[in-house]
Design a protein that fits this description.
This protein is α/β, with parallel strands linked by helices. Helix content is about 35%, strand content about 20%. The protein has a single domain (about 5-145), classed as FAD/NAD(P)-binding domain (3-Layer(bba) Sandwich), CATH 3.50.50.60.
């Protein structure tokens, strides 16, 4: 890996990865630093995409429960949350791997870790117990979002869920009727 880049993007979410790819397409030696361990940011990993996957699966479950109303008879319809979550994770994995492929195709250097500015042209990247320093003529910060608890009410991901926890349930904790 080069330790000097024309441009480094800190953050591999929808804005950061698109920016990095376009810069590389324009001929700049480009790196992208992402702390999550997979590209795509909140949207692809723990936001929009998993939400849409679970909403689609839930809608299909609801439709299937009402097939008899339109003349389609089936056996008992049951919800298998474990398989739904596996399906969601497969969707997320496919899309994040697709972004990694685009990085390789466009010659963007993907650096896993947390980037911290230490000078106007230098970034310290920490990943587990490893640290590297990279130099970059230009630095773009595109770090995205994270759930923020209310003051005095911390997420325990059991009774008080963040958006991330709500998309990672291991059991159904309540049922809301859509009828």
């Amino acid at each position: 890996m080069a330790d000097k880049f024309d441009v480094t993007v800190i953050g591999g979410g929808p804005a950061g990865y698109v920016c990095a790819i376009r810069l590389a397409q324009l001929g700049l030696n480009t790196a992208c630093i992402e702390s999550r361990g997979s590209l795509g940011g909140t949207c692809l990993n723990i936001g929009c995409i998993p939400s849409k996957s679970l909403l689609n699966l839930s809608e299909n479950f609801h439709k299937a429960k009402n097939f008899a109303d339109i003349g389609i008879e089936t056996g008992e319809i049951k919800l298998n949350l474990k398989k739904m979550m596996e399906n969601k994770e497969k969707s997320v994995s496919t899309l994040t791997k697709g972004v990694e492929f685009l990085f390789k195709k466009n010659k963007v250097t993907y650096i896993k870790g947390t980037g911290t500015l230490i000078k106007k042209d230098e970034i310290l990247v920490k990943n587990n117990n490893q640290e590297i320093k990279i130099k970059s003529d230009k630095i773009i910060i595109s770090t995205g979002s994270a759930p923020l608890p209310l003051p005095g009410i911390e997420f325990d991901e059991k009774q008080i869920l963040s958006s991330t926890g709500a998309l990672s349930l291991s059991k159904i904790i309540g049922v809301v009727s859509l009828s």
